[in-house]
Each structure stands twice: as C-alpha cells, then as structure tokens.
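sorry for the late reply, my laptop died twice this morning and i had to redo everyting from scratch. anyway the thing you sent over, i finally got around to it. pasting the sequence first so we're on the same page, its 666 residues, then the predicted structure underneath. double check i copied it right bc i was rushing
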Amino acid sequence: MSLSFVWTYSDAESRGTCLSVFTFFISNIWWYFVSTGEEPSGRPAGGRWLRKQFQKLFRGNRAQAGPNTISVTDGHLSPGDKEPQNVIFTFEELLEANHLSEASQLLIGREERLFGEITEAEALKHQEEEVDRFDADRRALKDLVVQILKQSLSTEVNVEALTSAVKAVWQEEEQDKQWKQRDGTPPAWRPSGWKKLHDSTLCSLVEERMDNTSSSRPADQVEKPSLQVDICSMGRQLKQDLLWVVEVVKSCYPPELHICNSYARWYHQTFSARLKKIAEFGLDDKDCTSLLLWVNDYYPEILRKPELASEIDHEALGKLLPEKLLEPLEEQYLSKQQSELTTCIDHVLEEAKQKWDDGEEPSRKDGCFVSPVAYDLIPPINGIVTTTVKVVGDQSKAQDLTYQLKDLLQRFRIFQDDIMKRSKPNSKPFIKAILSCIEHFRDFLIKKSDLFPEDVRESCLSVLMDMKQSAHMYLLSPVHEVLKPLYRKLGTSDWLNNSFTFENLLVSIEQQIQDLQGAAESCHQDLMGQLHQEVTAEYVKRLLRGEVKLKDKERQEKAYMTVKDNAESLHNLFVKMGSKEDWLKEILSKIAEVLKLQDLPAIQMQVVSLGTDYPDLSEKHVSALLKLKTNLTKADRRTVKVILSDALKETNVVNARPFFSRVLVK
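ok and here's the structure:
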C-alpha cells in the first residue's frame, strides 16, 4: 500500500502539523479500504464501518480526503483556533489556484497507487478508466506548467506560480529517477522528461523574444530596417531579459540549478546563431564595424555589468562568432582603418609642404609658431588605434596600425631636412613650429605607450630625438658663428685681466637669443638649455687650451675669482632667457676650485669630486686643467689622474649627466 502525504505552506506549531499529517494519513487508509472492499477485524465489506468512524472523527471538514484531493494549510485562523486550518483541495482546484507542485505531488501519489505494486499490464486491465483519467490530469498539469514557464520573462509573471511550476518539474524529475531504480515496468509516461521540456520551452521563449525585437527599438529607429538597428535591438533585448532573470526569475529556482547561467547560455546561443547568419553574407564597412563591436565590446560589456557578472560565468560562454567568421571581418575592418590613416597622413603632410613652398609662415598661438601636423595627426591615430582595440578585441592587432607612424615620422624628418637645406625666409619659423610637433609626438608616444609595439615606440622616439637635435643645430649654428670671435678670447690673458671681454660675450649672447624667440615655451626652454650647455662647453674648451699660464698662487686666485664670476653671470643670463640647466654653474665652480687650491691632496679630492659627478671627465681633461697650474709637476699630475681612475672604478654611475664629452681637448 502506497500513501501520499500532507504539503504544508505555514510554519505551524508541531501539534498542528502532526494533526495535518494524521488527517491525511487516515484519509488514505480510508480510501484504500473503500477501494478494495476490505474492512478491519472482519467487519462487513463496503467500507461502511470505517467510513462511519471517519465521519464521526472529522465531521465538519470541508470534504472527505480522497485520491484526487490534498490537504493544504490556508494560513488563516478559525475563531477559537490557534493554528492555521488545513483545507482539502481537489486536483482541479489546485490547478485553478496555480498550486502546481502540490498538484504534481497529488498525481505522483495516485501514480504510486496505480502502478507502484502492480504491473502496467494489470493496471491497464483492471483500471483503464482510472489510468485514462490520470493521464488526462497529467496532460492538464503539464500544459499549465508550460504555460506558466512561457510567462517567465513577462512583467506579468506570477512569481509564486512560477516557483510552484519549477518545483513540479523537479518533482517529476525525481520521480523519473525513482522509477529507474525499480524492477517493475514503469507507466508509459515514464520517464516524463519534464526537465528537457522545461529547457526546450525556455529556449524557444528566448528565441521568440530575440526574433521579435522591433517593439524594443527606440522610437527614432523603428522605421529604419538597417542591420545595425536589428543587432542593437537584439542586444538590448538580451540585456533587459538577463537583468530580469537575475532580479526576478532567479528567486523561483533553487540556487544549485544556476538558472542565470542557463538563460545566459540560451541567449548566447540564440544571439550567436543570428549573428552567424549575418556574418556569412558580405557586409559593407559600417555593418562590419557594428557587428565586430557587438562581438568584441558591447556584448562582453553587458555580461560584465556588476548585476550580471556575479551570477553569470561569461568566460564559459566564449565569443559570439567563431574565428573562421571573425578573421575575414577583422581583415576588412583593419584594411579600412589602414587606408584611412594613410590618407590622413598624406593629406596633412602635403598641406604642410604646400604652405612652406608657398612662402607662408606657420600660424601662431599665444605668440608662438605652431604646426598643424601633430594637432591633425595625433587625434586620428589615437582614435583609430583605441577604437580598433574595442572593435577587434585584440591589442596587438590594433597596435599593428601604428607601424605607419614610423613611416610618417621618417617622411616628416625628410620634410624638415628639406626646409633646412633650402633655407628660405620662412624656414626658421617652420623649424620652430616643428619643434612643437616633435614635443607633442614624443609626449604621445610616452603617455600612450600601450598603443604601440615596443619596437615602433623606440624607433619613433629615436627619429624624434634626431629631428630635435637637427633643429637645434640649425637654429643655434648661426649664433655660434657670431660668437666665435668672442669665444677665442676666453682663457687668454686679455680674458683674465679685462672683465669687459666676458661682458661683451654676454651682451652678444643676449642679442642673438632674441632671434631665437617664437618657439613654444617648453621648446624655447629646451633650446635655451641646449645653447647654455654649448656655450659652457665652449668656455671650458677655451680655458683648457692653456693659453693663459697660472704660474703662482696670486694668478691662480685671480683665475678662480674670474671663473666664479663668469659662472654666476652666465647662469643668471640663461636663467633669465629660460634655461633650466642649473647644474652647469656647478661645473664651472668646481673647475674654479681646482685652480685655486694649492695643497695636492685637496686638489686630488676636488678632481675626484668633479669626476664622480661627471664620469665622462677623461685623463686628457684632467691633464689640461692641471697644466694651467704650472707650479704642479708632471708627477703630481700623474698622481691625481691615478687617484681619479681608481675612484671611478669604485663608483656606481647611475643616470650621470654627460658634459666633458662635448669638450674636445688635444
């Protein structure tokens, strides 16, 4: 004998629960004896005795429990009662109330009574009418479960009904497992396959919603049948529905079923199938871009939303399109971007060349010459590469576009060389403007290093450095030509005895600097710093030539004061003109100290200090400097050089500034 059980919805106290269980237990016993005609203790057949006892015990109930009823607590208290009352529902009433899990339990109980202890053949022979009725009830329950499942993604879904339908599905699955473990012949409807029915129903629901997305289009796009709008509509529907699943549907399922991942998989498969059909046909460039953006950017971004990321394993879903379909689309897109970038570069360079050929000066901004080359090329390069990373979803493929930057800068350098060779009235303004371009390109390569392969970045920075040095040389060479006669007087007796010699040099430098105005502020600072270094190097070179002989302490003291004063005056002038190279003053000060010192150990310490700070100080430089002090012997000079050499071997040189390599001595 197989007995069904009581399904309770409330958290009633133990006594109420036990009473409900006992009530339903007795009802099942009663129905068994009534059905079979057996009575306990030899009582007359027909069930009259048990029925009378049962009615006496439970008189006043709504109905007598039978195989097609179930007792459910209604959650309400009758007057004078302390627990919720159990209400007897028929199968039809359970369906009407959407209590589908209870209806399923009821049918499972009936199934056990019909087939649990007899063969299917016996059941069909003796109880065909009951089986037919049972089969009809199963179909009714199944239809209602499917109907409610189809409402899962509707805002009108009944959450309690959906929860009950889901429970009914998994109860049926459990019953399928029970029958597999038995030796007897199962009913014709076992296994029921309701889990497959559940999945296929929801999968079909997803496909239907993705195929009918016109209602979700923005109002201004409803009349546009374009492919881009269709893809966007499907993507929007997918996003809305997955959020609904996480916020509402998820609560209707046990956590171990991972329903959010299941829905994500169905939507992924459906969206993927639709996009595959689109990708198999030739697309124009706009549609190609739109499709790639959805595959590589928009769709992954939806799945990475915080509300979804915690519920969906988006990595397990993979890409929307296979590589064999993505590759030709990516090649089409990359080829288009390459072509656009080439056209843009050609146009900007040709425009700059034409302006120079026509004798025009570059435009000014805040009084400084500027070139449009960097302004016109950096944004499109940055935009194209950044967008390409999103469109193709691959940093390295996007970086390949920047190989054109190497070609651009090589062509730009050739243009600059041509300007300098064919010196025209507008050549200097153009070179000053190009200095600004060089700075902008350099900053772009450094700040946006992630956009470039390392070899492209290093190559471009090298070209820019060469261009900057060439531009500085072009602008500063005329200055040094004017200053050359004044340089020759440095380090001579005239320089040592007459302060006007150096003052004339300072005045001339200041006059020449006026012609160097017009570059952007930062570029002008670099140019002044370069001139500051070159003038200082020229000063040291002329001093080390040894035209003036410092025979005694008095002349050495005078040379010390002269170099110190010159260092201060030179520093003040270049700082006023924009130079930031303060360290050059220190070099002249250290050289002055060597000229003043008389004690050999002190000289040794000062030379070691100079060599430690500037490791490109060579033995030739030291010899030339010490020869100015004619009271030092050859052995003294050799001792100083040996000590310096030993000191440099033990010195860990890190980021030392080069200076003496600029100073050529014989």
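The CA atoms of residues 203 and 266 lie 6 Å apart.
thats about all i looked at so far, will dig more tmrw
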